[in-house]
Amino acid sequence: MKNIHKIEKNPNFLEHLLIIVGSISMIVVVALTAITTYNSAREDVLNIAEDDAVRMGEIIVKHYQYDLFNKNKLNEGWSSLEIDMFDRHVKDFLSPFEIHKIKVFNPNSEIVYSNERDIIGVKDKNNKSLIKSLKGKINSHLVLEDEIVDLSEEKQMDVDVVETYFPVYNDEDEIVGAMELYVDVTIYRDEIIHRVTTSTISISAILIIVFAISYFIVRMGSKEVKTLLDKLYNMAVYDTLTGMYNRGAVIERANKELSIMKRRIINGEPPKCLGVIMLDIDHFKKINDTYGHQAGDQVLCELSDRIRQSLREYDIYGRWGGEEFVILLPETDHENSIAAAERLRKIIMEEPFSINGTNLNVTASFGVTCCYDPYESLDAIIIKADEAMYEAKESGRNSVKSI
């Protein structure tokens, strides 16, 4: 209901609402697209690196299983010469494949080999990824390394690597250990950025087009709603023939003027009079009967124009019904109200009405009252003006009477 009232007061509310909701929706959709695309690309890189790591690991295990997982070797340990020879073989094999680090674990989570020589023999007890791999699960995650030493013992800065743990099986499909490989995936960084940028630009372009079409449709609808509301407002407020206020609008404006007078009294200001003039065209039925209702309508319209020209900008006037009109004169007094009615009577009487080439002499009878008490009912005020108007008619018409 609140939105309906907002649309009534401001038909452009739908446009403003669309702009706000559309902008927020576009930001959310674009942000979610960027995040989703980034996560998807990141997952693809992770899977590629994981597959590469597992494949390389299987090759290493196939060629060096005896050296790595031989029970005697595990129990006795390696000599420095054996480690040097094995280290050289592994590095020569892995270096072309962007692998920066390798660790081999026995079933007890002890590092039996690593290109970082100082950690060989160390147990990695609380490594959850290692624990999972020793239970047969492959797991990987992408990490950013500010600094890392590759297999050729050169420092690499700002490197994206996928750290993959996977189990190692013997010929009997028994888990005999695990392996950890760091695969350098920095080369995919630009591809991820490109994919995210392309997706973001594409979805933004689509949303802008959809939003523009929606805005155009809503704007056209808002214009139609505004036109309809204007028509409904005019029908509710203005007399369709003369363009003046209708009876309901006059009553509403009169009540507003009485409310203003009440506030002034409350604020201790001197009271002002609300002058009320009721006028009725003399012998209007005769005009309709003699010249037709169309001529009568023209007389009403012409009289409306003369009323507009004779009053102040802030005076209020409207068609009360038939050939009766009401004029409200805010901030005046009794004498000025009578003078305004007399001035209008002369304007109507002195210049004939030209109707379809025929000059008609038209007169009107006026009833005037002035309200100093804003707590007096509007009905009572109108009745006074109406009684004064009938007194003018009974005294011969074409005159002004007041109460």
Q: How would you describe this structure to a colleague?
A:
The protein has 403 residues and is α+β, with helices and mostly antiparallel strands. It has two domains: 14-192, 2-Layer Sandwich (Beta-Lactamase); 247-402, Alpha-Beta Plaits (2-Layer Sandwich), CATH 3.30.70. The protein contains eleven helices and twelve strands. It has a five-stranded antiparallel sheet with strand order 2-1-5-4-3. A five-stranded mixed sheet has the order 7-8-6-11-12, sandwiched between helices. It has a two-stranded antiparallel sheet with strand order 9-10. Helix 8 crosses helix 9 (293-310) and helix 9 (293-310) crosses helix 10. The protein is rod-shaped.
Helix and strand topology:
Elements: H1 2-9, H2 13-69, H3 71-76, H4 80-94, E1 99-105, E2 111-114, H5 128-134, E3 139-149, E4 155-169, E5 175-184, H6 189-237, H7 247-266, E6 273-281, H8 284-291, H9 293-310, E7 316-321, E8 324-332, H10 334-350, E9 353-355, E10 358-360, E11 364-371, H11 378-394, E12 400-402
Parallel strand pairs: 11-12
Antiparallel strand pairs: 1-2, 1-5, 3-4, 4-5, 6-8, 6-11, 7-8, 9-10
Helix pairs in contact: 2-6, 8-9, 9-10
Structural class: alpha+beta
Low-confidence stretches: 1-6
Count the DSSP helices: 11
- Shape by Cα distribution: rod-shaped
Name of the top-level CATH class of the largest domain: Alpha Beta
Largest sheet: 5 strands, antiparallel
The fourth-level CATH homologous superfamily of the largest domain is PAS domain
Distance between the termini: 46 Å
Helix content: 55-70%
Write the H/E string, N to C: HHHHEEHEEEHHEHHEEHEEEHE
> What average pLDDT do the residues reach?
86
Structurally, the number of domains stands at 2
What is the oligomer described by this structure?
single chain
Report the C-alpha radius of gyration, rounded.
48 Å
Strand order of the largest sheet: 2-1-5-4-3
CATH level 3 topology of the largest domain: Beta-Lactamase
Total number of β-strand segments?
12
CATH architecture of the largest domain: 2-Layer Sandwich
Beta-strand portion reads 15-25%
